[in-house]
Design a protein that fits this description.
With 406 residues, the chain is of the alpha/beta class. It has two domains: 127 residues, Beta Barrel (Lyase, Ornithine Decarboxylase, Chain A, domain 1), CATH 2.40.37.10; 234 residues, Alanine racemase (TIM Barrel). The strands form two sheets. Strands 1, 2, 11, 12, 13, 14, 15, 16 and 17 form a nine-stranded mixed sheet that branches. α3 links the parallel β3 and β4. It is elongated, with a radius of gyration of 22 Å. The N terminus and C terminus are likely disordered. The structure holds pyridoxal-5'-phosphate (PLP). The site of pyridoxal-5'-phosphate has 17 residues, from α10.
Length: 406
């Protein structure tokens, strides 16, 4: 899905020079800047700050030394994010031909990509191969057989399933196989002459505890040993997926602390194993601030209802399936707060962003600011009822290249 990249703005925020230490707190666009942007562009807006993308990428790189980070495009497939991460030296995780097109259009070298959708059409495989991406994921025999025709050019990761009911999205419910099935796939691949590069897993998005990664790494280590004992071609790669958590309304462990036990588990892998990861949410959640304006209001059953120009079918689409409790507040801070309802603009009754939020009395045109809106928001927004998606305003994209060339 192509997201609109409408406006790029350079603001004198904290520039993040190459290799500069990470600042702990990501600077958020100030209220003054938000008001200026709305005056210029109207609302709703999604304000995307590339400095936050850099900070998060560097924080996770530092927390997982030696692990190659492939940014998973799906939470925010935006060209400015791709360009920013490309400059940072990131690699990329693709799942569709649309994502292939996006990275190709931004000049990402294909060697820096992997294609990790476990279930693909032949056309998806061909599109990726044509671009030059040759690492794919399978989790069953039927999928493996799709690669017979391409066996000279592909390398395969076998995805294992580790269920995680606590994650926002338990991705192992839909994808992945057991360790026994992984051995079956690897054995059959040898017969077919298809190269198996290694194993992968995804412990579930927004996983609160590193214990899930640790047990998954231990289980994969056993499979790696088992493969060697069976005389099958040695595996060279372990892909530990995405799932790294961010603080929405609840605190999460700082990323260094979160990754410490993961690094301990990785240290027990054979030295020959190269480790990669596919973080999505962690890199982009904090880089977008959404700005919506009040387009009308009513009092219903004694409660103020404010109708916004953005809602569940737009930038807040993640509320339907992602359980993310975005920090939401009015730009206006003065006045006594009462329990209020924030509704989206469409005619559908489920289009309610919050049915119990403490707000001061708002006027039509007042602004509602929501932070941490970068992951699985714009990417899943629709044009339902012909309400246009929020315009994307890109901040701080150029500062990095100015620092590098200056
Ligand atoms: C295969 C794969 N990799 C990576 C990701 C990114 O996960 P997260 O955003 O939780 O880091 C996803 C999310 O759905 C995924 O399906």
């Amino acid at each position: 899905m192509a997201l609109s990249t409408d406006v790029t703005i350079k603001v004198p925020a904290a520039a993040v020079a190459a290799n500069q230490p990470i600042h702990d707190e990501i600077a958020q666009p100030s209220n003054k800047l938000i008001e200026q942007l709305v005056t210029q562009h109207g609302a709703p807006l999604m304000v995307l700050d590339c400095d936050a993308v850099r900070c998060q990428y560097r924080a996770l790189s530092n927390a997982l030394p030696g692990v190659t980070l492939h940014f998973a495009l799906k939470p925010l497939p935006h060209a400015a994010v791709v360009r920013t991460l490309l400059e940072e030296g990131a690699s990329f995780d693709l799942a569709t031909s649309g994502e292939v097109d996006l990275v190709a259009s931004q000049g990402v070298p294909s060697e820096r990509t992997i294609h990790t959708h476990p279930i693909k059409r032949d056309a998806d495989i061909r599109d990726a191969l044509e671009y030059g991406c040759n690492v794919f994921v399978v989790d069953n025999i039927n999928e493996l057989e799709k690669f017979i025709a391409y066996k000279e050019s592909v390398e395969i990761l076998v995805r294992l399933s580790f269920r995680n009911a606590d994650a926002f999205a338990d991705l192992s419910k839909k994808f992945g196989c057991s360790p026994a099935m992984a051995i079956e796939i690897i054995t059959y691949a040898k017969q077919l002459g298809i190269r198996i590069k290694g194993l992968s897993f995804h412990v579930g998005s927004q996983t609160a505890s590193p214990a899930k990664y640790v047990s998954a790494i231990e289980a994969c280590n056993l499979v790696i040993k088992n493969v060697a004992e069976l005389g099958l071609p040695a595996l060279s790669t372990l892909d530990i997926g995405g799932g790294f958590p961010v603080p929405y309304s609840k605190d999460v462990l700082p990323i260094d602390e979160f990754c410490a036990p993961i690094n301990d588990a990785l240290a027990k892998l054979p030295d020959t194993i190269r480790v990669i990861a596919e973080p999505g949410r962690f890199i982009v959640a904090s880089c977008v601030t959404s700005v919506a304006s009040v387009m009308g209001q009513a009092v219903r059953e004694g409660k103020p209802w404010y109708y916004l120009d953005d809602g569940i079918y737009g930038s807040f689409s993640g509320l339907m399936f992602d359980e993310a409790a975005y920090p939401i507040d009015s730009l206006k801070q003065e006045g006594a707060r009462v329990e209020s309802v924030l509704a989206g603009p469409t005619c559908d009754s489920i289009d309610v962003v919050s049915d119990a939020i403490m707000l001061p009395k708002l006027n039509n045109g007042d602004l509602i600011i929501s932070r941490m809106m970068g992951a699985y928001t714009l990417a899943t927004a629709t044009d339902f009822n012909f309400f246009k998606r929020a315009e994307v305003i890109v901040l701080n994209e150029q500062i990095q290249s100015q620092v590098l060339t200056g």
